[in-house]
Design a protein that fits this description.
By secondary structure, this protein is an alpha/beta fold. The chain has a single domain (7-208), classed as Vaccinia Virus protein VP39 (Rossmann fold), CATH 3.40.50.150. The chain has nine helices and seven strands; from the N terminus they run αααβαβαββαβαααββ. The protein has a seven-stranded mixed sheet, sandwiched between helices. β1 (45-49), α4 (55-60) and β2 form a beta-alpha-beta unit. The mean pLDDT is 92.
Amino acid sequence: MLFKKSPDKFWDLISSKYAASPIQDRAAYEAKITKLKTYLTEDSIVLDIGCATGTQCSDIANNVKQVTGIDISDKLLTIAEVRKAERKINNVKFVKTSLFDAHFQPAGFDIVMAFYVLHFFEDIDAVLKRIYDLLVPGGVFISETTCLGDKNFVLGKFLRLLGSIGLLPKINLLTTHKLEQAVKKAGFCIIEKVRFSDSNSEYTLIARR
């Protein structure tokens, strides 16, 4: 199966395996969620881009007014709905759509989250501009991004090749520097850059509109 024009089919295909995979570093994840919550209020309206099985959406639900999790995979979102029901959460909704959905209004969100998803966008400048526009003035953008341009350029080039012929979703070989520059170019001010694990984990960037 080729995924060049239908990356959603790739995520549908691996959805069960993805959902069954445990969080590799639970302590680091909990530290990240704790940090994230310091930027939330009971009135916060949150958008989670590429929410997958909705774990982070559900983990912050009690701290905010509303969370919208979006993804392109029907099967991942089905799993997210089941897990939401199991936890009896009422202020999270999951939608199969993209960041550029016209239903999302400018200044419609207080917080936008993007965890391990930005490297799947080819035009990172357009994505960050869209996120900037969706945030209220003073709103916060929180992201973690796989930067294969930093970590393993040879592997990154191989994965990008597979993406270009459709065997994987397209991969953008971002570097931390390139990402930070793009965030600033979009108009954000980076206020925190945190690594929650001593292992080879990604930085969490926190930026304010």
